[in-house]
Every structure is written in C-alpha cells, then in structure tokens.
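Troubleshooting: if your tokenizer reports a length mismatch, compare your output against this known-good record of 453 residues.
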Amino acid sequence: MLKKYLSNTAGNISLMFAVTSGVLILGIAAALDITGASGQQNKMQSMADAAALAAVTSGETNQAKIREFVEASLGANNTGDLVYDWEIIITDDSVTVNVNSIYDTKMMGFVGKNKMPVGAISEAKFPEEIPINIALVLDRTGSMDGANMSSLKAASAVLVDQFAKYDADTRVAVVPFADYVNVGLSRRGENWLSVPPDESIDVPARECYMYQPRSCTQRETRSRDTTSDGVTTATTYEHCTAYENTGPEVEYCPSAYTREIRWNGCIGSRSGLYNRTAAYRGQQIPGVLEATCGEEVLTLTDDMTAVKAKISSLSASGNTYIPVGLINGWRMLDADRPFQSLSNKEEKRKRALVLMTDGKNTLSLSDPYLDGKHTGEKEQEANALTSELCENIKAADIDVWTVAYNFDDENSKNMLKNCASSTSQFFDASDQSALTAAFEKIGKSLFVARLSR
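Known-good structure output:
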C-alpha cells in the first residue's frame, strides 16, 4: 500500500505546475514592466542629452540663463508628457543634467511593486577652443538681387556674430561667386595666375548716313517673360505703336573709338583633372578678360568686422556656376598656392566650408575648353563636377555645410544635401528667418560641444 502511494506522481505534477506557473507569470510581468521602464528611461536620456547640449551651445556664461536653456529644452522634448524633476550641475568646463521620474508599473503591482524609479544623466563639455578656418562660399548671382541679397547679409551677420562669441582662434574667408570669382587686380603678377595682356582695339569711323528724327505718339503696355540666372519672371513694358517726324533728315557720322579689353580680376577654371583639386601643382589658373565678377574675395582673417563689411558690400549679378565657388573656397583652406595660408597645415586646426546658393547651375565650362571660360549651358555636366568637388573637399578632411535658399529645384537640393558632410549639415531655407536659423545653427555647431556621458 505504501509502495503504491509513493509511486503516484499525479499530485506532485499539479503542485509543480502551480508553482512554476506562478514564477513564470511573475517573470513575464517583471519583463513587461522592465521593458516599459527602459523605454521611459530612453526618452528621459534623450531629453537630458538635448538639454545638456542646449546649455553648452547657448553661448551663455550666466548660470541662471543656462538653467533657462535647460528648462526650455526639457519642456520642448517632453513629448510623452512625463512628470519629472531635474537638477543641473555647472562647472568651468561642463554641464551635467539629471532627470528623474517614476514609472507606474502595469503588472508588478500584483506583487506589491506599483512604482519604479527611473533616471537619466547627461554631461556635456563646453565647446573646446579648437582653432578653426572657415570659408564662406556665397552666391552673388543675379537671382540674389533684392530681398534674397538683403536676407543673406542679415543672416550672415548673425553667423559672424556666432564666430565672435568663442575664444578659439577663428579665421574666416569670404568667396563671393557667380559666373567667376574675383581674386583682385593686385594678384595679376602672381606666378600661379595666367592672365592674357589687356588689349586696345581701334575701331575706325563708319560711313555717314541719314536718319529721320521722330517721336512716339502712341503706346501700349505689353508683357514678356525674362530669364536671368535660370529664374523666369513676367515683366511689363511700354511699346510704341505710332510715330511722327519731328524735323528734317539729319546726317550722322559714327566716330572712331578705341575698345578697351581689360582684366577685372576674374578667374576661371583649369582643364581636366586640375579642375578637380585645389592644389596648384604647377598648373596656372586662367584669368578671364572682359568678364565682370563682383567683389574681390577676402582671404582668411580673424577680423570679424572686415568679414561683415565684405559680406555687406556684395552686389548681385551674373549666372550660377557653383564649381568655381567651391574650388576657390577649398583653396582658401589649402596651404598651397594661390592663397597659401600656412595655418591650414596646423594639425589641430579644424577646417570648414559653408556653401550657400539660391539656385541651380545655369553655366558649365566652355565646350570646347577655351581659356577657362564658363559659357556652356550643360547643367548636368556642372552638377557632376559640383558633386565630385564636394567629395574631394570632404576627402581632404574639410567639414562641409550647405544651404539651399528660396528655390524649388529638387535635383539641385539633393545635390547640395549629398554635398554636405552629413544630412544634418544641409539646410533648406525658404525665407530670411529660416536662413538666419540655419546660419545660427551652423555657427554654434562648428564649435562642437560633445557629450561626455
């Protein structure tokens, strides 16, 4: 009888099932709540990271102001409406943000654990005083005339003010571009530059002829589309439809004159592989006669007043050829000729290029190649060269930022997005406030703050 009882395991199995089932349910409940608490902690960590970075990139030194930046950032990033408390620790070189909250358990309340404390901590270093050289490559084409140019000047002032906030050794160059880039008449004799001699052509007098003076007696308003730098606008004008003679015929004799062909400081592009690198490599850069190219470049300087003055002086004219802006911005950040800034060789010096344009490429190299001129109209060819230059500049360890301003061409925007060192370094600005915000963010980000933990 005893032997039979001992051999009956049915009850044992039921007991074991009851025990293990309870443990299993408790384990599942714990896992679910731990997962939920972990998700809440991840959100809080993102909040803490963003707040710490906001604090150290604010440019503020007043602790009360820094606290305001942290509080505002935490509130803006609290997308889950978490109830939390926070504290901040500010030292000479860092800001630490602690965020704490309570996670309300969903399952573990059955075993008496209704709440779990959750916390996140983030420390960010104030921007390091890393020396930096920056080339501002700015579109000054005809489509920038009016409001676009005014917006560029206002936004650029904010950007330059950002540079001035930091104690780092900061040097800035300005490269205005359109069809060509102006390196200045004073550089004509430089050995890296090839400029044809100026010419004076005597144009002889023409034969005299008779013409009838007359005036317009009737006009009508007409409209037409005009295209400048790839932008077509509708314009109206007064067209004369009837005339009357105002006197007898008059003899006119065109006089002889001298046509002056001068170099105005404009440079074009080298041929072949030389047009894909900033390095001099013994191949001269061609000067282009008769071309106009706006304001002269400003080489690297730590005089931010001079930088703002140069940008403020910009005028709008010409068509868009982005490669000539890019390659000369790169040259500003190269130690070789033509601009030879030896600071670009310093091991710890950071280099950055900021490109801003308001339109697509409307010019390309002359075909066949002719003295470095940009009179072609092959957009795809110009875009391909733009993209290749962007990759080469980034390969030279230069940080690239790009801004598309107030235009709609998606192919060109994608080209600029791919040109930037990362997608977060491309900005699509549709108005002055967006352009200012983009430049302000670039200015802060160039002096990189980093998370320590």
